[in-house]
């Protein structure tokens, strides 16, 4: 009996992998022989804001909650961060705490997709991952500027929206680019397997669809997000900033569109990942913004973080990964 193990338990947030995941392992039952560091979390504890880590229990691919950071027992600031810059959070928190010592080791943050963070807010901050259920009510929510403004209009966030950086798209590929992907049009090829963000709750999908239409019209967009989804050659991710590079490293996919900053992080981390730049005329830029969550448990801390996120010190952490500073037009 074949066991679909390639990504059945992804070390992110207890997300089940697509049925076709076994193709990356050729359907073979085998003991894990890969390097554990290929699986998240990739930062070896740096993204956990705690003074005492206690008993360590992290098993790559099996027990590893990579998108929940810090001590949830008594936080003084809870951040819901669209996961596109999970790798920037550790230096951001360190810099913030240096200027606000009372929050030292008291910040908890999550980096799951923006749409899923909204679902958690609607559930009163309660979330279940595997067999663990906990509650962490958000103080500040971060996503694309449009999404933040929409949530303000719905009364879920308190304005104003605070924009701070921008980001561009890129095509992430395995090292050596085995699929010979040269641009967006190649994503429509029948021989290319894709890992693409899910439009249902990943805001990046909207920008990707715009860029696909720029490159190849509605036909290319539908090929990538409809035809190839139906035939199994496009896998829709649940946590694209974790799953896309993992699927590439496992050989489950040949390419996937992500934010350029995510590819830069993977390359800097030494993973066998590269990226293909998307020309400016075909690219789509996102503006990241945040706002205080309505009824935030720690409103003063929330305002302090929003003031900090626009600072020169904060931008220095973003710039390392290719983000650009937001400037009002």
TrEMBL record:
Record's signal peptide: 1-21
Keyword Signal: yes
SUPFAM superfamilies linked to this entry: Periplasmic binding protein-like II
Keywords linked to the UniProt accession: Signal
Protein name: Substrate-binding domain-containing protein
Organism the protein comes from: Aquamicrobium soli
Organism taxonomic ancestry: Bacteria, Pseudomonadati, Pseudomonadota, Alphaproteobacteria, Hyphomicrobiales
């Amino acid at each position: 009996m074949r066991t679909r193990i390639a990504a059945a338990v992804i070390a992110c947030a207890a997300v089940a992998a697509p049925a076709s995941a076994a193709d990356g392992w050729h359907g073979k039952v085998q003991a894990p022989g890969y390097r554990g560091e290929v699986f998240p979390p990739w930062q070896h504890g740096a993204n956990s804001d705690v003074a005492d880590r206690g008993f360590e229990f992290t098993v790559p691919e099996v027990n590893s909650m990579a998108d929940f950071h810090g001590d949830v027992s008594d936080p003084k600031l809870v951040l819901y961060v669209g996961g596109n810059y999970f790798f920037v959070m550790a230096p951001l928190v360190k810099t913030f705490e240096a200027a606000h010592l009372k929050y030292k080791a008291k910040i908890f943050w999550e980096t799951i997709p923006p749409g899923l963070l909204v679902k958690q807010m609607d559930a009163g901050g309660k979330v279940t991952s595997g067999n663990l259920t906990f509650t962490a009510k958000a103080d500040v929510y971060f996503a694309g500027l449009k999404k933040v403004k929409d949530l303000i209009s719905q009364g879920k966030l308190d304005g104003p929206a605070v924009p701070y950086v921008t980001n561009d798209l890129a095509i992430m590929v395995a090292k050596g680019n085995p699929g010979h992907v040269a641009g967006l049009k190649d994503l429509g090829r029948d021989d290319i397997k894709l890992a693409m963000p899910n439009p249902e709750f990943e805001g990046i999908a909207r920008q990707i669809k715009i860029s696909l239409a720029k490159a190849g019209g509605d036909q290319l967009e539908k090929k990538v997000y409809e035809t190839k989804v139906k035939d199994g050659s496009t896998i829709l991710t649940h946590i694209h900033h974790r799953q896309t590079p993992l699927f590439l490293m496992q050989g489950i996919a040949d390419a996937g569109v992500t934010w350029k900053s995510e590819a830069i992080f993977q390359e800097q981390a030494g993973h066998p990942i590269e990226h293909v730049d998307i020309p400016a005329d075909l690219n789509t830029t996102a503006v990241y913004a945040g706002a205080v969550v309505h009824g935030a448990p720690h409103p003063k801390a929330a305002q302090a973080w929003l003031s900090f996120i626009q600072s020169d010190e904060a931008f220095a952490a973003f710039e390392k990964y290719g983000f650009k500073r937001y400037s009002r037009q």
